[in-house]
Design goal:
The protein has helices at 29-35, 82-85, 89-92, 117-124, and strands at residues 8-9, 14-19, 22-27, 38-42, 49-50, 55-61, 65-69, 74-79, 101-105. By secondary structure, the chain is an alpha+beta fold. It has a 6-stranded antiparallel β-sheet. Strands 4-6-7 form a 3-stranded antiparallel β-sheet. Strand 6 and strand 7 form a beta hairpin. The chain starts with 7 loop residues before the first strand and ends with a helix.
């Protein structure tokens, strides 16, 4: 299973890529594997500013629906609209084409609280 070293991770199985004050967020290969075939990604919070740990959307798979939690506080500035037509991209390419949202960070110091690849690998065993 792929766990890129250049990303940060959360206990909720989301990955974060930070570029300046903008973070790109998606779910990990482990998360999409646990969920199964993803059939719908719902993000209705674009334009909103949310706190860390608040729900920003949900992922619907064949067997279950799972909430998506903000790994960092910030304003949701972009939703990956490609996922509306092709939600299965999250399964096939979770770290590139399957990204979900981009946020403008409210509190960049929160990035330090996230796990690196080694810590995330330990978490999922």
């Amino acid at each position: 299973m792929s766990i890129p070293n250049n990303l940060k991770y959360t206990k909720d199985h989301e990955w974060v890529s930070v570029d300046g004050d903008v973070a790109t967020i998606g779910i990990t290969a482990f998360a999409q594997g646990e969920l199964g075939d993803i059939v719908y990604v719902e993000i209705e919070t674009e334009g909103e500013t949310l706190d860390q740990e608040e729900v920003f959307g949900s992922v619907e798979a064949v067997k279950t629906v799972s909430d998506l939690f903000m790994p960092l506080s910030g304003e949701i500035i972009e939703f990956n609209e490609e996922l509306e037509a092709a939600p299965e991209t999250v399964n096939s390419d979770p770290y590139e084409g399957g990204w979900m949202i981009k946020i403008r960070l409210s509190n960049p110091s929160e990035v330090e609280e996230l796990m690196d690849a080694a810590a995330y690998t330990e978490l999922i065993g």
